[in-house]
Amino acid sequence: MEEVLPERIFPSLVALFIVVWVILFIWLFNVLYLEPNKIRLKLQRQGIKGPPPAFVMGNIHEMKRIMSMAADAPRSETHLPLGFSTSTTFPYFTQWTKRYGGTFTFALGNAQVLHVTDTKLVKEINLSKTLDLGKPSYLQEDRGPLLGKGLITSNGAVWLHQRKTIAPQLFMDKVKGNLNIMVEFVSDLVNSWLGLIELGRGSADIRVDDYIRSFTSTLISKMMFGSHYSKGVELFPKCRALMKDLQTPTILKGIPFFRYLPTKENQDVRRLEKEIYASLIDIVKEHPETAFDKMAQIIIESAKTGELGTSTPDQYIVDNYKDVYLAGFEVTVVATLWACLYAEVLEVCGGHVLDTNMLGKMKLMVIQEVLRLYLGVAFVSRQALKDVKLGDILVPKGVNIWIWIPVLHQDPELFANGISGACKSPNAYIPFGIGTQMCLGQNLAITEMKILFTIILSHFSLSLSPNYNHSPRLNLLLEPEYGVNLIIIKI
Protein backbone atom coordinates (compact mmCIF):
# COMPACT_ATOMS: atom_id res chain seq x y z
CA MET A 1 0.00 0.00 0.00
CA GLU A 2 2.85 2.37 0.88
CA GLU A 3 4.63 1.59 -2.45
CA VAL A 4 1.48 2.19 -4.53
CA LEU A 5 0.77 5.68 -3.09
CA PRO A 6 3.79 7.47 -4.66
CA GLU A 7 2.96 5.89 -8.01
CA ARG A 8 -0.49 7.51 -7.85
CA ILE A 9 0.76 10.91 -6.61
CA PHE A 10 3.50 11.37 -9.23
CA PRO A 11 1.16 11.27 -12.29
CA SER A 12 -1.20 13.65 -10.49
CA LEU A 13 1.65 16.10 -9.84
CA VAL A 14 2.75 15.90 -13.48
CA ALA A 15 -0.80 16.53 -14.64
CA LEU A 16 -1.12 19.49 -12.27
CA PHE A 17 2.19 20.88 -13.49
CA ILE A 18 1.05 20.61 -17.12
CA VAL A 19 -2.28 22.29 -16.34
CA VAL A 20 -0.52 25.18 -14.57
CA TRP A 21 1.86 25.69 -17.49
CA VAL A 22 -0.98 25.55 -20.03
CA ILE A 23 -2.95 28.16 -18.06
CA LEU A 24 0.18 30.35 -17.74
CA PHE A 25 0.89 29.98 -21.47
CA ILE A 26 -2.68 30.92 -22.41
CA TRP A 27 -2.58 33.92 -20.07
CA LEU A 28 0.77 35.13 -21.46
CA PHE A 29 -0.35 34.57 -25.05
CA ASN A 30 -3.47 36.62 -24.36
CA VAL A 31 -1.60 39.44 -22.58
CA LEU A 32 1.38 39.61 -24.95
CA TYR A 33 -0.32 38.89 -28.30
CA LEU A 34 -4.10 38.61 -28.49
CA GLU A 35 -5.07 41.73 -26.49
CA PRO A 36 -2.48 44.04 -28.10
CA ASN A 37 -3.48 42.81 -31.57
CA LYS A 38 -7.15 43.33 -30.76
CA ILE A 39 -6.51 46.91 -29.68
CA ARG A 40 -4.31 47.63 -32.70
CA LEU A 41 -6.96 46.29 -35.09
CA LYS A 42 -9.60 48.57 -33.54
CA LEU A 43 -7.36 51.56 -34.22
CA GLN A 44 -6.42 50.39 -37.73
CA ARG A 45 -10.09 50.10 -38.69
CA GLN A 46 -10.34 53.83 -37.88
CA GLY A 47 -7.48 54.62 -40.27
CA ILE A 48 -4.74 54.84 -37.62
CA LYS A 49 -1.61 53.04 -38.78
CA GLY A 50 1.82 52.59 -37.27
CA PRO A 51 5.08 50.58 -37.39
CA PRO A 52 4.49 46.81 -37.13
CA PRO A 53 5.48 45.57 -33.66
CA ALA A 54 7.58 42.52 -32.82
CA PHE A 55 6.25 39.84 -30.50
CA VAL A 56 6.77 40.63 -26.78
CA MET A 57 9.03 43.68 -27.33
CA GLY A 58 6.77 45.71 -29.62
CA ASN A 59 8.75 48.50 -31.34
CA ILE A 60 11.47 48.83 -28.69
CA HIS A 61 14.27 47.26 -30.75
CA GLU A 62 13.39 49.44 -33.75
CA MET A 63 13.44 52.54 -31.52
CA LYS A 64 16.90 51.60 -30.23
CA ARG A 65 18.17 50.98 -33.76
CA ILE A 66 16.93 54.37 -35.01
CA MET A 67 18.32 56.08 -31.90
CA SER A 68 21.72 54.48 -32.44
CA MET A 69 21.82 55.65 -36.07
CA ALA A 70 20.88 59.19 -35.03
CA ALA A 71 23.60 59.23 -32.35
CA ASP A 72 26.25 58.32 -34.97
CA ALA A 73 25.12 61.05 -37.37
CA PRO A 74 27.09 64.35 -37.31
CA ARG A 75 25.39 67.24 -35.50
CA SER A 76 25.21 70.76 -36.84
CA GLU A 77 26.40 73.68 -34.73
CA THR A 78 23.77 75.68 -32.87
CA HIS A 79 23.67 79.33 -31.90
CA LEU A 80 21.62 81.31 -29.42
CA PRO A 81 18.76 80.76 -29.00
CA LEU A 82 20.22 77.30 -28.65
CA GLY A 83 18.40 74.65 -30.59
CA PHE A 84 16.53 71.59 -29.45
CA SER A 85 16.02 69.19 -32.33
CA THR A 86 13.21 66.68 -32.02
CA SER A 87 14.82 64.65 -34.81
CA THR A 88 17.91 64.20 -32.61
CA THR A 89 16.20 63.55 -29.28
CA PHE A 90 13.27 61.50 -30.65
CA PRO A 91 14.41 60.34 -34.12
CA TYR A 92 12.00 57.38 -34.18
CA PHE A 93 8.96 59.64 -33.73
CA THR A 94 10.26 61.92 -36.47
CA GLN A 95 10.59 58.99 -38.88
CA TRP A 96 7.21 57.52 -38.00
CA THR A 97 5.47 60.90 -38.26
CA LYS A 98 6.79 61.31 -41.80
CA ARG A 99 5.59 57.82 -42.68
CA TYR A 100 2.23 57.59 -40.88
CA GLY A 101 1.25 61.17 -40.10
CA GLY A 102 0.91 62.95 -36.75
CA THR A 103 -1.53 60.40 -35.29
CA PHE A 104 -0.22 56.84 -35.30
CA THR A 105 0.12 53.86 -32.98
CA PHE A 106 3.21 51.99 -31.76
CA ALA A 107 3.95 49.44 -29.04
CA LEU A 108 6.22 49.39 -25.99
CA GLY A 109 6.19 45.72 -25.17
CA ASN A 110 2.49 44.84 -24.95
CA ALA A 111 1.50 48.44 -24.15
CA GLN A 112 -0.20 50.18 -27.07
CA VAL A 113 0.50 53.89 -27.48
CA LEU A 114 -1.43 56.41 -29.57
CA HIS A 115 0.94 59.18 -30.63
CA VAL A 116 -0.83 62.53 -31.11
CA THR A 117 0.23 65.89 -32.57
CA ASP A 118 -3.03 66.82 -34.31
CA THR A 119 -4.36 70.01 -32.68
CA LYS A 120 -8.01 69.03 -33.20
CA LEU A 121 -7.49 65.78 -31.29
CA VAL A 122 -5.47 67.63 -28.63
CA LYS A 123 -8.44 69.98 -28.23
CA GLU A 124 -10.78 67.02 -27.72
CA ILE A 125 -8.49 65.63 -25.02
CA ASN A 126 -8.24 69.05 -23.41
CA LEU A 127 -12.03 69.47 -23.28
CA SER A 128 -12.69 65.95 -22.02
CA LYS A 129 -13.93 65.94 -18.42
CA THR A 130 -14.35 62.18 -18.02
CA LEU A 131 -12.35 60.37 -15.36
CA ASP A 132 -12.15 57.44 -17.79
CA LEU A 133 -9.22 59.29 -19.38
CA GLY A 134 -6.63 59.10 -16.62
CA LYS A 135 -2.96 58.76 -15.80
CA PRO A 136 -1.16 55.75 -17.35
CA SER A 137 -0.68 52.72 -15.15
CA TYR A 138 3.01 52.50 -16.10
CA LEU A 139 3.68 55.64 -14.03
CA GLN A 140 3.01 53.68 -10.85
CA GLU A 141 4.62 50.50 -12.18
CA ASP A 142 7.83 51.97 -13.64
CA ARG A 143 8.11 55.17 -11.60
CA GLY A 144 6.49 53.89 -8.40
CA PRO A 145 9.55 54.26 -6.16
CA LEU A 146 9.72 57.96 -7.10
CA LEU A 147 6.10 59.00 -7.74
CA GLY A 148 4.22 56.39 -5.70
CA LYS A 149 0.43 56.75 -5.77
CA GLY A 150 0.34 60.49 -5.28
CA LEU A 151 -1.34 63.27 -7.20
CA ILE A 152 0.84 62.82 -10.31
CA THR A 153 -0.10 59.17 -10.87
CA SER A 154 -3.53 58.60 -9.31
CA ASN A 155 -6.96 58.33 -10.94
CA GLY A 156 -10.62 58.36 -10.00
CA ALA A 157 -11.80 59.03 -6.47
CA VAL A 158 -8.26 58.95 -5.04
CA TRP A 159 -7.09 61.65 -7.48
CA LEU A 160 -10.17 63.78 -6.78
CA HIS A 161 -9.47 63.63 -3.04
CA GLN A 162 -5.81 64.54 -3.55
CA ARG A 163 -6.61 67.37 -5.96
CA LYS A 164 -9.23 68.84 -3.62
CA THR A 165 -6.66 68.72 -0.82
CA ILE A 166 -3.51 70.02 -2.53
CA ALA A 167 -4.72 72.31 -5.34
CA PRO A 168 -5.93 75.21 -3.10
CA GLN A 169 -2.47 75.38 -1.51
CA LEU A 170 -0.98 76.19 -4.93
CA PHE A 171 -3.43 78.91 -5.96
CA MET A 172 -1.84 82.27 -6.72
CA ASP A 173 -2.95 83.89 -3.47
CA LYS A 174 -1.12 81.18 -1.49
CA VAL A 175 1.95 81.43 -3.73
CA LYS A 176 2.10 85.20 -3.18
CA GLY A 177 2.19 84.54 0.53
CA ASN A 178 5.66 83.01 0.03
CA LEU A 179 7.22 85.91 -1.91
CA ASN A 180 9.28 87.10 1.05
CA ILE A 181 10.71 83.61 1.50
CA MET A 182 11.61 83.44 -2.21
CA VAL A 183 13.39 86.81 -2.05
CA GLU A 184 15.31 85.72 1.06
CA PHE A 185 16.61 82.52 -0.52
CA VAL A 186 17.50 84.16 -3.87
CA SER A 187 19.49 86.71 -1.87
CA ASP A 188 21.53 83.82 -0.41
CA LEU A 189 22.25 82.65 -3.97
CA VAL A 190 23.30 86.18 -5.01
CA ASN A 191 25.71 86.44 -2.05
CA SER A 192 27.30 83.11 -3.01
CA TRP A 193 27.93 84.35 -6.57
CA LEU A 194 29.27 87.68 -5.32
CA GLY A 195 31.85 85.76 -3.29
CA LEU A 196 32.97 83.78 -6.34
CA ILE A 197 33.11 86.92 -8.49
CA GLU A 198 35.26 88.65 -5.88
CA LEU A 199 37.70 85.74 -6.01
CA GLY A 200 37.65 85.92 -9.82
CA ARG A 201 38.39 89.66 -9.87
CA GLY A 202 35.13 90.87 -11.36
CA SER A 203 33.76 87.79 -13.13
CA ALA A 204 33.35 84.06 -12.63
CA ASP A 205 32.66 81.02 -14.79
CA ILE A 206 29.97 79.31 -12.72
CA ARG A 207 28.07 76.08 -13.24
CA VAL A 208 24.73 77.32 -11.99
CA ASP A 209 22.85 74.01 -11.64
CA ASP A 210 23.56 73.34 -7.97
CA TYR A 211 22.80 76.92 -6.96
CA ILE A 212 19.39 76.89 -8.68
CA ARG A 213 18.63 73.49 -7.13
CA SER A 214 19.61 74.73 -3.71
CA PHE A 215 17.20 77.66 -4.05
CA THR A 216 14.22 75.57 -5.17
CA SER A 217 14.84 72.71 -2.70
CA THR A 218 15.10 75.13 0.22
CA LEU A 219 11.98 76.98 -0.87
CA ILE A 220 9.83 73.85 -1.27
CA SER A 221 11.08 72.48 2.06
CA LYS A 222 10.27 75.77 3.78
CA MET A 223 6.76 75.77 2.24
CA MET A 224 6.22 72.20 3.44
CA PHE A 225 7.94 71.95 6.82
CA GLY A 226 8.20 75.53 8.06
CA SER A 227 10.97 75.97 10.62
CA HIS A 228 12.03 72.33 10.19
CA TYR A 229 12.81 72.82 6.48
CA SER A 230 16.50 71.87 6.83
CA LYS A 231 15.52 68.23 7.34
CA GLY A 232 13.50 68.36 4.14
CA VAL A 233 16.45 69.82 2.21
CA GLU A 234 18.52 66.77 3.16
CA LEU A 235 16.13 64.56 1.17
CA PHE A 236 16.75 66.19 -2.20
CA PRO A 237 20.10 64.52 -3.00
CA LYS A 238 18.41 61.16 -2.43
CA CYS A 239 15.47 62.16 -4.63
CA ARG A 240 17.93 63.22 -7.36
CA ALA A 241 19.78 59.92 -7.08
CA LEU A 242 16.49 58.03 -7.32
CA MET A 243 15.53 60.05 -10.41
CA LYS A 244 18.86 59.15 -12.01
CA ASP A 245 18.37 55.43 -11.35
CA LEU A 246 14.86 55.60 -12.83
CA GLN A 247 15.69 57.78 -15.82
CA THR A 248 15.21 54.92 -18.31
CA PRO A 249 11.80 53.21 -18.12
CA THR A 250 12.17 49.47 -17.56
CA ILE A 251 10.14 48.74 -20.69
CA LEU A 252 12.79 50.50 -22.82
CA LYS A 253 15.61 48.33 -21.46
CA GLY A 254 14.40 45.51 -23.67
CA ILE A 255 14.30 42.95 -20.85
CA PRO A 256 10.83 41.76 -19.70
CA PHE A 257 10.22 42.13 -15.95
CA PHE A 258 13.56 43.95 -15.58
CA ARG A 259 12.45 45.87 -12.49
CA TYR A 260 12.07 42.58 -10.59
CA LEU A 261 15.64 41.41 -11.27
CA PRO A 262 18.18 41.72 -8.40
CA THR A 263 20.48 44.11 -10.32
CA LYS A 264 22.58 46.73 -8.53
CA GLU A 265 20.43 49.45 -10.10
CA ASN A 266 17.20 47.90 -8.81
CA GLN A 267 18.73 47.33 -5.38
CA ASP A 268 19.78 51.00 -5.25
CA VAL A 269 16.25 52.06 -6.20
CA ARG A 270 14.70 49.99 -3.43
CA ARG A 271 17.26 51.25 -0.91
CA LEU A 272 16.67 54.91 -1.79
CA GLU A 273 12.91 54.41 -1.75
CA LYS A 274 13.07 52.99 1.77
CA GLU A 275 15.43 55.72 3.00
CA ILE A 276 13.24 58.54 1.63
CA TYR A 277 10.12 56.92 3.09
CA ALA A 278 11.73 56.49 6.51
CA SER A 279 13.10 60.05 6.56
CA LEU A 280 9.76 61.63 5.64
CA ILE A 281 7.87 59.57 8.21
CA ASP A 282 10.45 60.48 10.86
CA ILE A 283 9.96 64.19 10.12
CA VAL A 284 6.17 63.81 10.40
CA LYS A 285 6.28 61.70 13.57
CA GLU A 286 8.90 63.82 15.38
CA HIS A 287 6.91 67.05 15.25
CA PRO A 288 3.26 68.00 15.75
CA GLU A 289 1.29 68.99 12.65
CA THR A 290 1.17 72.60 13.83
CA ALA A 291 4.97 72.79 13.52
CA PHE A 292 4.63 72.57 9.72
CA ASP A 293 3.31 75.03 7.17
CA LYS A 294 -0.23 74.77 5.84
CA MET A 295 0.46 72.46 2.88
CA ALA A 296 2.07 69.74 4.99
CA GLN A 297 -0.68 70.03 7.60
CA ILE A 298 -3.35 69.63 4.93
CA ILE A 299 -1.72 66.50 3.46
CA ILE A 300 -1.37 64.92 6.92
CA GLU A 301 -4.98 65.75 7.79
CA SER A 302 -6.32 64.44 4.46
CA ALA A 303 -4.62 61.08 5.10
CA LYS A 304 -6.99 60.60 8.03
CA THR A 305 -10.15 61.04 5.96
CA GLY A 306 -11.17 60.60 2.38
CA GLU A 307 -10.37 58.05 -0.31
CA LEU A 308 -6.83 56.65 -0.07
CA GLY A 309 -7.24 53.70 -2.44
CA THR A 310 -4.79 50.91 -1.63
CA SER A 311 -2.37 53.24 0.20
CA THR A 312 -1.90 53.31 3.95
CA PRO A 313 -2.11 56.78 5.59
CA ASP A 314 1.68 56.92 5.90
CA GLN A 315 2.18 55.90 2.27
CA TYR A 316 -0.37 58.51 1.16
CA ILE A 317 1.55 61.23 3.03
CA VAL A 318 4.95 60.17 1.65
CA ASP A 319 3.76 59.81 -1.95
CA ASN A 320 2.12 63.24 -2.03
CA TYR A 321 5.12 64.86 -0.35
CA LYS A 322 7.37 63.37 -3.05
CA ASP A 323 5.05 64.51 -5.85
CA VAL A 324 4.95 68.09 -4.52
CA TYR A 325 8.75 67.98 -4.19
CA LEU A 326 9.21 66.82 -7.78
CA ALA A 327 6.73 69.25 -9.32
CA GLY A 328 7.92 72.26 -7.32
CA PHE A 329 11.61 71.43 -7.39
CA GLU A 330 12.98 69.62 -10.43
CA VAL A 331 10.59 70.96 -13.10
CA THR A 332 11.29 74.55 -12.02
CA VAL A 333 15.05 73.90 -11.94
CA VAL A 334 15.11 72.56 -15.50
CA ALA A 335 13.01 75.43 -16.89
CA THR A 336 15.20 77.99 -15.09
CA LEU A 337 18.42 76.45 -16.42
CA TRP A 338 17.14 76.68 -19.99
CA ALA A 339 16.00 80.25 -19.37
CA CYS A 340 19.53 81.20 -18.30
CA LEU A 341 20.73 80.23 -21.78
CA TYR A 342 18.01 81.93 -23.73
CA ALA A 343 19.22 84.94 -25.72
CA GLU A 344 16.33 87.20 -24.79
CA VAL A 345 17.34 87.03 -21.12
CA LEU A 346 20.46 88.91 -22.15
CA GLU A 347 18.72 91.18 -24.66
CA VAL A 348 15.80 92.25 -22.45
CA CYS A 349 17.24 92.09 -18.94
CA GLY A 350 20.98 91.63 -18.92
CA GLY A 351 23.06 94.44 -17.48
CA HIS A 352 20.13 96.57 -16.32
CA VAL A 353 18.12 97.04 -13.14
CA LEU A 354 14.70 95.65 -13.98
CA ASP A 355 11.76 98.04 -14.15
CA THR A 356 8.05 97.24 -14.56
CA ASN A 357 8.27 97.38 -18.35
CA MET A 358 11.17 94.92 -18.44
CA LEU A 359 9.38 92.55 -16.09
CA GLY A 360 6.40 92.53 -18.45
CA LYS A 361 8.67 91.75 -21.38
CA MET A 362 10.46 89.08 -19.37
CA LYS A 363 7.20 87.28 -18.62
CA LEU A 364 6.12 87.43 -22.24
CA MET A 365 9.38 86.91 -24.09
CA VAL A 366 11.46 84.76 -21.78
CA ILE A 367 9.52 82.58 -19.38
CA GLN A 368 6.71 81.63 -21.74
CA GLU A 369 9.10 81.28 -24.67
CA VAL A 370 11.44 79.04 -22.68
CA LEU A 371 8.47 76.91 -21.62
CA ARG A 372 7.53 76.65 -25.29
CA LEU A 373 10.98 75.64 -26.53
CA TYR A 374 12.46 73.84 -23.51
CA LEU A 375 9.65 72.33 -21.53
CA GLY A 376 10.70 69.89 -18.84
CA VAL A 377 8.21 67.16 -19.81
CA ALA A 378 8.24 66.00 -23.44
CA PHE A 379 4.82 64.32 -23.42
CA VAL A 380 1.39 64.71 -21.96
CA SER A 381 0.37 61.13 -21.24
CA ARG A 382 -3.08 59.71 -20.62
CA GLN A 383 -4.62 56.24 -20.60
CA ALA A 384 -8.09 55.14 -21.64
CA LEU A 385 -9.35 53.44 -18.47
CA LYS A 386 -12.48 52.55 -20.46
CA ASP A 387 -13.39 52.97 -24.14
CA VAL A 388 -13.31 56.75 -24.70
CA LYS A 389 -14.71 58.75 -27.63
CA LEU A 390 -12.44 61.65 -28.65
CA GLY A 391 -13.80 63.47 -31.68
CA ASP A 392 -14.05 60.91 -34.49
CA ILE A 393 -11.80 58.39 -32.74
CA LEU A 394 -12.94 55.68 -30.33
CA VAL A 395 -9.91 54.99 -28.15
CA PRO A 396 -10.06 51.40 -26.84
CA LYS A 397 -9.62 50.66 -23.15
CA GLY A 398 -5.96 50.25 -22.23
CA VAL A 399 -4.50 52.51 -24.92
CA ASN A 400 -1.92 55.05 -23.74
CA ILE A 401 -2.13 58.49 -25.39
CA TRP A 402 1.08 60.49 -25.83
CA ILE A 403 0.84 64.10 -26.96
CA TRP A 404 4.28 64.99 -28.32
CA ILE A 405 4.62 68.55 -27.02
CA PRO A 406 7.89 69.61 -28.74
CA VAL A 407 6.39 69.14 -32.20
CA LEU A 408 3.38 71.28 -31.30
CA HIS A 409 5.54 73.97 -29.68
CA GLN A 410 8.01 74.14 -32.56
CA ASP A 411 5.53 74.01 -35.43
CA PRO A 412 6.25 77.17 -37.53
CA GLU A 413 2.65 77.23 -38.77
CA LEU A 414 1.41 77.52 -35.17
CA PHE A 415 4.15 79.79 -33.80
CA ALA A 416 5.33 81.83 -36.77
CA ASN A 417 6.77 84.58 -34.53
CA GLY A 418 7.39 82.69 -31.31
CA ILE A 419 5.16 83.01 -28.28
CA SER A 420 4.95 86.80 -28.69
CA GLY A 421 3.26 86.31 -32.08
CA ALA A 422 0.39 84.42 -30.41
CA CYS A 423 -0.40 80.79 -31.08
CA LYS A 424 -2.80 80.10 -33.93
CA SER A 425 -4.24 77.21 -31.92
CA PRO A 426 -4.55 77.76 -28.14
CA ASN A 427 -4.47 74.00 -27.61
CA ALA A 428 -0.96 73.81 -29.08
CA TYR A 429 0.69 75.66 -26.18
CA ILE A 430 0.59 73.19 -23.30
CA PRO A 431 3.75 73.47 -21.14
CA PHE A 432 1.79 72.47 -18.02
CA GLY A 433 -0.37 69.79 -19.60
CA ILE A 434 -4.05 69.88 -20.51
CA GLY A 435 -7.50 69.07 -19.24
CA THR A 436 -8.64 68.47 -15.71
CA GLN A 437 -5.32 66.88 -14.74
CA MET A 438 -3.20 69.89 -15.73
CA CYS A 439 -0.16 70.54 -13.51
CA LEU A 440 -1.27 72.34 -10.36
CA GLY A 441 2.14 73.89 -9.70
CA GLN A 442 2.30 76.26 -12.67
CA ASN A 443 1.68 79.40 -10.57
CA LEU A 444 4.49 78.44 -8.21
CA ALA A 445 6.90 77.56 -11.04
CA ILE A 446 6.37 80.80 -12.98
CA THR A 447 6.57 82.91 -9.82
CA GLU A 448 9.82 81.22 -8.76
CA MET A 449 11.34 81.94 -12.17
CA LYS A 450 10.23 85.57 -12.14
CA ILE A 451 11.68 86.19 -8.69
CA LEU A 452 14.94 84.48 -9.63
CA PHE A 453 15.43 86.58 -12.76
CA THR A 454 14.23 89.79 -11.14
CA ILE A 455 16.92 89.61 -8.47
CA ILE A 456 19.74 87.83 -10.32
CA LEU A 457 19.61 90.07 -13.39
CA SER A 458 19.49 93.24 -11.31
CA HIS A 459 22.87 92.23 -9.81
CA PHE A 460 24.64 90.44 -12.67
CA SER A 461 25.02 90.27 -16.41
CA LEU A 462 25.06 86.75 -17.86
CA SER A 463 26.75 85.33 -20.91
CA LEU A 464 27.33 81.84 -22.17
CA SER A 465 30.54 80.20 -21.01
CA PRO A 466 32.88 78.59 -23.58
CA ASN A 467 32.78 75.57 -21.25
CA TYR A 468 29.07 75.05 -21.93
CA ASN A 469 28.29 71.97 -24.03
CA HIS A 470 24.81 72.18 -25.56
CA SER A 471 23.26 68.72 -25.32
CA PRO A 472 19.55 68.51 -24.36
CA ARG A 473 18.87 65.04 -22.96
CA LEU A 474 15.61 63.41 -22.01
CA ASN A 475 15.86 61.56 -18.72
CA LEU A 476 12.74 61.93 -16.61
CA LEU A 477 12.80 65.56 -17.80
CA LEU A 478 14.40 67.29 -20.75
CA GLU A 479 17.52 68.78 -19.18
CA PRO A 480 21.05 69.96 -20.10
CA GLU A 481 23.12 66.78 -20.09
CA TYR A 482 26.33 68.50 -18.96
CA GLY A 483 24.82 71.27 -16.86
CA VAL A 484 24.86 75.02 -17.55
CA ASN A 485 28.03 77.12 -17.32
CA LEU A 486 27.69 80.92 -17.45
CA ILE A 487 30.12 83.82 -17.30
CA ILE A 488 28.67 86.00 -14.52
CA ILE A 489 29.76 89.61 -14.08
CA LYS A 490 28.68 91.94 -11.29
CA ILE A 491 26.84 95.00 -12.60
From TrEMBL:
Record's keyword terms, sorted: Heme, Iron, Membrane, Metal-binding, Monooxygenase, Oxidoreductase, Transmembrane, Transmembrane helix
InterPro entries for this protein: Cyt_P450, Cyt_P450_E_grp-I, Cyt_P450_sf, Cytochrome_P450_Monooxygen
Residue numbers binding heme: C439
Chief location: membrane
Top-level taxon in the UniProt lineage: Eukaryota
Cofactor section: heme
A Pfam family of this chain: p450
GO molecular function: heme binding; iron ion binding; monooxygenase activity; oxidoreductase activity, acting on paired donors, with incorporation or reduction of molecular oxygen
Heme found in the keyword field: yes
Cell compartment(s), UniProt: Membrane
Membrane topology value: Single-pass membrane protein
Gene Ontology cellular component list: membrane
Segments crossing the lipid bilayer: 12-34
UniProt family annotation: Belongs to the cytochrome P450 family.
Descriptive protein name: Cytochrome P450
Organism whose genome encodes this protein: Vitis rotundifolia (Muscadine grape)
Species classification: Eukaryota, Viridiplantae, Streptophyta, Embryophyta, Tracheophyta
